Amino acid sequence: MATKKTEDAKKVVAKKATVESVVAKAEAVKKAEAAKEVKAAVKAEPVKAEVKEEKKPAAKKPAAKKPAAKTTETVFVEYNNGQINVSDIVAKAKEALGNKAVKELNVYYQPETGMVYYTADGESGSYSL
């Protein structure tokens, strides 16, 4: 009987070995399939990107805008039955500066007194309308 037990034990060990080998093979197959899927996904990504790039329509350039018709603007100040054009006030201030180029010009008009005050690049002055 001792021999039968050892033979049975050998069969059990052999069955365990075959089960373990089958499990190991199954795990190896799963790993291989997962690796194939990863490789396929990696290979597929650039292809998808290329396809997307090809399917994108060309960027549309906005139509060239036609230049807007130039508008003329005239601003008048009316006070005490009198009227004066604002551009005339600025032109006289520039004239009082000697028509030299200035970076910043500020013009103040006081209609009550009829006086125009200006500052141009730190220089100030005034004149009467």
Write the layout of secondary structure elements.
Layout: H1 2-55, E1 76-79, E2 82-85, H2 86-96, E3 105-110, E4 115-120, E5 123-128
Antiparallel strand pairs: 1-2, 3-4, 4-5
Region (Disordered): 46-69
Pfam family, one: DUF6465
InterPro entries: DUF6465 (IPR046313)
Describe the model.
Residues 46-57 have a biased composition (Basic and acidic residues). Residues 58-68 have a biased composition (Basic residues). Residues 46-69 are annotated as: Disordered. InterPro entries: DUF6465. This protein is an alpha+beta fold and 129 residues long. It has a three-stranded antiparallel beta sheet with strand order 3-4-5, with helices on one face. It has helices spanning 2-55, 86-96; strands at 76-79, 82-85, 105-110, 115-120, 123-128. A hairpin with a 4-residue loop joins strand 3 and strand 4 (115-120). It has two domains: 1-61; 76-128, no CATH class.
**How many distinct folded domains?**
2
Radius of gyration: 47 Å
Q: What is the strand tally?
A: 5
Proportion of beta-strand residues: 15-25%
Question: Strand order, biggest sheet?
Answer: 3-4-5
Round the mean pLDDT to the nearest integer and report it.
76
Distance between the termini: 137 Å
Report the total helices.
2
Biased composition (Basic and acidic residues): 46-57
Biased composition (Basic residues): 58-68
Region (Disordered): 46-69
